[in-house]
Write a structure and sequence with these properties.
The protein is built from five helices and no strands. It has 95 residues and is mostly helical. The protein has one domain.
Length: 95
Amino acid sequence: MVGPAANEEPGAEMRRLREGLSLSRPAFARLLGVSRQAVWNWERGRRRPSTPCLRWARYLSRNLAAEDEEQREAARQVVAELAGADSQQGEEERR
């Protein structure tokens, strides 16, 4: 699911989207142009993500799930370029 679930808080949605993209917090932060601390605060409900950050995360999630292979590949390339190399690291960085 790309949009928020019923009664889902924005921080919980961002965590679901991040995990759906298989990204660590640092990689997700780079992808969105924010700090790791911002992502951590969103996921814990201490702060709310901005509307542009939510829209960008939803857009990438939706395009990675698209039926069109070209659309999926374009989204994969954006994630790889913006998230950086550590998006493929193991579970030690995923918290």
